[in-house]
Design brief:
Layout lengths: L4 E6 L4 E7 L2 E4 H5 L7 H6 L1 H13 L7 E2 L5 E2 L8 E4 L4 H11 L16 E4 L4 E2 L4 E2 L8 E2 L2 E7 L15 E8 L2 E2 L18 H5 L5 E9 L10 E6 L2 E7 L7 H9 L9 E3 L19 E6 L3 E7 L1
Parallel strand pairs: 6-17, 8-14, 9-19
Antiparallel strand pairs: 1-2, 1-5, 2-3, 3-4, 6-7, 10-13, 11-12, 11-17, 12-14, 15-16, 15-18, 18-19
């Protein structure tokens, strides 16, 4: 099987689906002759058919018309996901880091308590693509970084058993779950109130979900629980871990989520962030900062703050 990367790119008159093979971008619809291949969302909607077609195309690109990857503007691979589910407190090293910062005892392994993974939702409109500029919200002075492995769903999933959950994954990409830490809690609301937390203000400002640069087909990621993940700000490494540090695996998250709500093709799961976020050290993003995230087997996502 010839490897490829699935991208959404700016064709000058709108976005198009493409595949990257050997540093060249091939337009899926134009090169395959299938007009229904003009967007990644359409391809994901019938992923079983699309992935066979894309693999065949990647193996036979030959002299087909293409563009240099360096000359193409890549957009978020799934520019408007149906839903974005974000795992909270899902890396062992991150949980320990936050407990130390708050001077509290770390919580026990949630598996021992019979708990499932828990997720909050990020608005699809928060998504921006690789190399796009993030406009830091003027109301916040504490925007933090969070490197994440992102899972793109490729099949309708409902009540999925854990041992078959990865079969519902179309592929993997990278995301940055940017967080406005100074808007996590509503200051005027008592700490005892169940309405203390403001997840929209904290997690859903414009540009708060950089994603990309592409989707790597699931077949190319042999084990999503063994991938190095790293984030730097201005060239200084802040996060350096491995997806084996996840508390709930990708398969567990898909199974748990699908037991609560039906997952659809094009939905994205952000699987949690490792230790090294800025909040415990009082470090936050400023205009001019460049954030780079690398995930083993996937590539690099870069964005600059303004």
């Amino acid at each position: 099987m010839t490897g490829y990367r699935l991208v959404t790119y700016d064709a000058g008159e709108g976005s198009r689906a493409g595949i990257v093979v050997n540093g060249r971008v091939f337009d899926v619809a134009a090169c395959s002759g299938h007009k229904d291949g003009d967007s990644v969302s359409v391809l994901l909607a019938d992923w079983e058919t699309a992935k066979a077609r894309l693999s065949a195309l990647a193996a036979s690109v030959g002299a087909l018309p293409s563009r240099s990857l360096g000359g193409v503007k890549l957009l978020a691979p799934v520019d408007r996901p149906g839903a974005i589910y974000c795992a909270g407190a899902n890396y062992k090293d991150h949980v320990l880091e936050m407990a130390r910062a708050q001077n509290i005892a770390p919580e026990p392994d949630p598996h021992a308590a019979g708990l499932q993974s828990w997720h909050f939702i990020k608005a699809p409109g928060c998504v921006i693509g690789p190399d796009e500029t993030v406009q830091l919200p003027p109301r916040s002075s504490k925007v933090d970084w969070e490197a994440e492995l992102a899972v793109v769903i490729g099949r309708r999933a409902k009540d999925v058993p854990m041992d078959g959950a990865l079969a519902y994954v179309a592929g993997y990409t990278i995301a940055d779950d940017l967080s406005a830490r100074d808007f996590t809690k509503r200051a005027q609301v008592p700490d005892s109130s169940p309405f203390k937390y403001d997840w929209v203000a904290h997690k859903c400002f414009d540009g708060s979900c950089p994603m990309g640069p592409w989707i790597v087909p699931a077949e190319e990621i042999i084990d999503p629980q063994s991938l190095a993940i790293e984030l730097s700000v201005g060239g200084v490494t802040k996060q350096k871990s491995n997806t084996r540090e996840m508390i709930f695996t990708v398969a567990e998250q898909i199974s748990h989520l699908s037991g609560k709500i039906t997952l659809h093709p094009g939905d994205v799961i952000l699987t949690g962030t490792p230790a090294g976020v800025g909040a415990p050290r009082g470090e936050f993003l400023r205009a001019g900062d460049e954030v780079r995230i690398t995930v083993e087997g996937i590539g690099e996502l870069a964005n600059r703050m303004a």
